[in-house]
């Protein structure tokens, strides 16, 4: 999966957050604190992205650097030299790997409207944007907390789990596909439960699966995302 996300301020994205217990606009209840989500049509790797996680039995919306491994600077943190905005499914159970512990104790969900893939390089690169035809996508991710030794600053980082390429997406991207969690059962709630450390229950999720219809459209380039071909509908599995 390539490094861009579509997190527009869409009713479906807000509904997904609310289904997970996150109230973005609790205007009807002044006792509920408003949680701020970062909306951006083109979110790049190593930038801030909003994630949902569960801490001490409470769901919360946090901002995380989309790059799981960080390294300290003089006063804060920056993305490590080791590429880690994605975590491969076949590394999750490798002791000592970047995502091994996080997979067991600090999973998160990245709510998005869509994501982007790139096929080829340089002048031959073909860019495709994917959006949920209906609803939003709940991408399965991992997160880690980092505390700076000098300043005491606490920073959150995250990655998105990637699976083998899905056959229906193979014409657009041949390396991998993101983990898209089902929303019609208990999958999301199990994923967010930090007490669930027996990750064998997630074995079925480690095969590529499309739980939603996707609309695929080739674009000119990620920063301008102007369509250059008619959109195509990819049906859910």
How would you describe this structure in keywords?
6-stranded antiparallel β-sheet; 36% strand; hypothetical protein yedk fold; hydrolase; DNA damage; 3 helices; 7-stranded mixed β-sheet; DNA-binding; mainly beta; 237 residues
What's the gist of this structure?
The chain has 237 residues and is mainly beta. It has a single domain, classed as SOS response associated peptidase-like (hypothetical protein yedk fold, Alpha-Beta Complex), CATH 3.90.1680.10. Helices cover 9% and strands 36% of the residues.
How would you portray this structure in words?
By secondary structure, the chain is mainly β. The protein has one domain (4-113, 136-209): hypothetical protein yedk fold (Alpha-Beta Complex). The protein is 9% helix and 36% strand. The protein has helices at residues 11-19, 100-105, 187-192; strands spanning 4-7, 40-44, 48-55, 58-66, 70-72, 77-79, 86-88, 107-112, 114-119, 126-132, 137-147, 154-163, 177-178, 214-219, 232-234. Strands 3, 4, 7, 8, 11, 12 and 13 form a 7-stranded mixed β-sheet that branches. Strands 2-1-9-10-14-15 form a 6-stranded antiparallel β-sheet, with no helix packed on it. The chain is globular and about 50 Å long.
Total of DSSP H or I helical runs spanning 4+ residues: 3
CATH domain fold name: hypothetical protein yedk fold
Oligomer: single chain
Provide the low-confidence segments as ranges. Answer: none
What CATH architecture label applies? Answer: Alpha-Beta Complex
Alpha-beta content class: mainly beta
Nearest-integer average pLDDT? 92
Give the proportion of residues in helices. Answer: under 10%
How much strand content do the residues show?
Answer: 35-45%
Task: Name the shape in a single word.
Answer: globular
CATH superfamily: SOS response associated peptidase-like
Keywords: Covalent protein-DNA linkage, DNA damage, DNA-binding, Hydrolase, Lyase, Protease
Organism: Paraglaciecola algarum
EC number: 3.4.-.-
Protein name: Abasic site processing protein
């Amino acid at each position: 999966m390539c490094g861009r996300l579509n997190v527009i301020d869409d009713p479906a994205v807000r509904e997904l957050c609310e289904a997970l217990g996150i109230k973005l606009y609790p205007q009807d209840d002044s006792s509920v604190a408003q949680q701020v989500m970062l909306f951006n049509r083109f979110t790049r790797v190593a930038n801030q992205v909003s994630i949902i996680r569960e801490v001490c039995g409470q769901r919360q919306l946090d901002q995380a650097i989309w790059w799981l491994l960080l390294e300290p600077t003089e006063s804060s943190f920056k993305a490590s030299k080791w590429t880690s905005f994605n975590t491969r499914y076949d590394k999750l159970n490798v002791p000592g790997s970047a995502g091994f512990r996080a997979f067991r104790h600090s999973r998160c969900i990245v709510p998005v409207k869509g994501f982007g893939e790139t096929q080829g390089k340089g002048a031959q690169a073909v860019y495709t944007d994917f959006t949920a035809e209906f609803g939003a996508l709940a991408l399965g991710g991992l997160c880690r907390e980092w505390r700076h030794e000098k300043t005491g600053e606490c920073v959150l980082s995250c990655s998105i789990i990637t699976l083998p390429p899905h056959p229906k997406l193979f014409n657009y991207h041949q390396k991998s596909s993101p983990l898209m969690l089902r929303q019609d059962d208990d999958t999301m709630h199990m994923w967010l439960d930090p007490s669930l450390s027996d990750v064998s229950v997630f074995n079925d999720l480690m095969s590529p699966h499309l739980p939603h219809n996707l609309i695929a459209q080739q674009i000119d380039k990620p920063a301008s995302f102007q369509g250059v071909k008619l959109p195509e509908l990819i049906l859910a599995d």
